[in-house]
């Protein structure tokens, strides 16, 4: 019996802003060939091995609190990874200066952004040069997904919600991310159902959960309530019904059997 591949820890940030017809969230299109390539998802990526070097440049959230929120012993690694990946992919930087003010979108145009993305400029050094601290308190944990055990590449992803800081805008990097769109969750779901936007299952499921809310403030309240109630890991499983792939989640009929299929495949 072959054991399932160990999932890589990662973080995703759902960035939201208030629009004329309700809250909008940012979706990015990943380049073909990457994980979830050529599909739209929320910005994010894997936790780097040296993420802890940036802990000193985080404000509004202690390491102890991050560990308690996520139920791990390296919680700030996920916050750092989420903020860093969001910056690399979209130019949005969830960081404040020494006066507690949000940094502005000039950072999105900086050549330093490319240096961080390519690993030529260490993330903590970038923050130090600009006199910035990551805004750990701006990230609101609300969901936890793990790739099905049968998949050859797997991730354990913590989902966070954050409001777009004032004075900032999204500018996709054109390398890992080839497009970006602000959409109301309901519109994104409709585009996904029609086939106009290809999206991974967790993205579509999350968008459905965000549909009912009429403001970013309401979204934040919902995320806070989710965390207080306790967040369980969701690991989908895949099965075949009438020749078609069907995705199941914990609680669905037949989930346990489908989740254990990796043992015999």
Walk me through the structure:
The protein has helices at 63-70, 75-90, 111-118, 123-130, 185-194, 201-210, 216-229, 255-259, and strands spanning 8-19, 22-30, 40-41, 44-46, 58-59, 95-96, 133-135, 140-146, 155-163, 177-183, 237-241, 244-248. By secondary structure, it is α+β, with helices and mostly antiparallel strands. The protein has two domains: 8-234, Nucleoside Triphosphate Pyrophosphohydrolase; 235-265, no CATH class. Strands 1, 2, 3, 4, 8, 9 and 10 form a seven-stranded mixed β-sheet that branches. It has a three-stranded mixed β-sheet with strand order 5-7-6, covered by helices on one side. A two-stranded antiparallel sheet has the order 11-12. The model has no long low-confidence stretch (mean pLDDT 92).
List the topology elements.
Blueprint (H helix, E strand, L loop, with lengths): L7 E12 L2 E9 L9 E2 L2 E3 L11 E2 L3 H8 L4 H16 L4 E2 L14 H8 L4 H8 L2 E3 L4 E7 L8 E9 L13 E7 L1 H10 L6 H10 L5 H14 L7 E5 L2 E5 L6 H5 L6
Parallel strand pairs: 1-9, 5-7
Antiparallel strand pairs: 1-2, 1-4, 2-3, 2-10, 6-7, 8-9, 11-12
Helix pairs in contact: 2-3, 5-6
Query: So what's the CATH class of the largest domain?
Result: Alpha Beta
In one word, what is the shape? Answer: globular
Low-confidence stretches: none
Order of helices and strands: EEEEEHHEHHEEEEHHHEEH
Look at the structure and give the mean pLDDT: 92
Taken together, the total number of domains comes to 2
Gyration radius over CA: 18 Å
The CATH topology of the largest domain is given as: Nucleoside Triphosphate Pyrophosphohydrolase
Q: What percentage of amino acids are in beta strands? A: 15-25%
* Gross CATH architecture of the largest domain: Alpha-Beta Complex
Distance between the termini: 9 Å
Task: Report the strand count.
Answer: 12
Structural class: alpha+beta
Indicate the percent of residues in helices: 25-40%
Largest sheet: 7 strands, mixed
CATH superfamily of the largest domain: Nucleoside Triphosphate Pyrophosphohydrolase
């Amino acid at each position: 019996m072959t054991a399932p591949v160990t999932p890589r820890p990662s973080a995703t940030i759902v960035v939201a802003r208030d629009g004329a017809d309700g809250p909008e969230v940012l979706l990015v299109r990943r380049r073909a060939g990457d994980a979830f390539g050529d599909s739209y998802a929320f910005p994010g990526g894997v936790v780097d091995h040296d993420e802890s070097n940036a802990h000193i440049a985080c404000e509004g959230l202690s390491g102890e609190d991050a560990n308690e929120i996520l139920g791990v012993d390296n919680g700030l690694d996920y916050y750092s990874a989420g903020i860093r990946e969001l910056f690399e992919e979209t130019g949005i930087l969830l960081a404040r200066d020494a006066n507690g003010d949000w940094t502005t979108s000039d950072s999105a145009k900086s050549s330093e952004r490319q240096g961080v993305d390519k690993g030529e400029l260490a993330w903590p050094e970038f923050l130090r040069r600009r006199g910035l601290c990551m805004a750990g308190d701006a990230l609101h944990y609300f969901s936890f997904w793990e790739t099905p055990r049968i998949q050859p590449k797997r991730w354990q992803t913590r989902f966070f919600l954050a409001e777009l800081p004032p004075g900032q805008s999204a500018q996709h990097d054109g390398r890992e991310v080839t497009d970006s769109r602000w959409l109301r969750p309901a519109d994104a779901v409709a585009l996904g159902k029609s086939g106009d936007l290809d999206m991974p299952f967790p993205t579509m499921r999350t968008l459905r959960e965000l549909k009912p809310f009429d403001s970013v403030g309401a979204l934040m309240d919902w995320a806070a309530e989710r965390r207080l109630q306790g967040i369980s890991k969701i690991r989908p499983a895949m099965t075949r019904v009438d020749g078609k792939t069907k995705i199941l989640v914990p609680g669905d009929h037949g989930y346990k059997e489908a989740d254990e299929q990796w043992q015999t495949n």
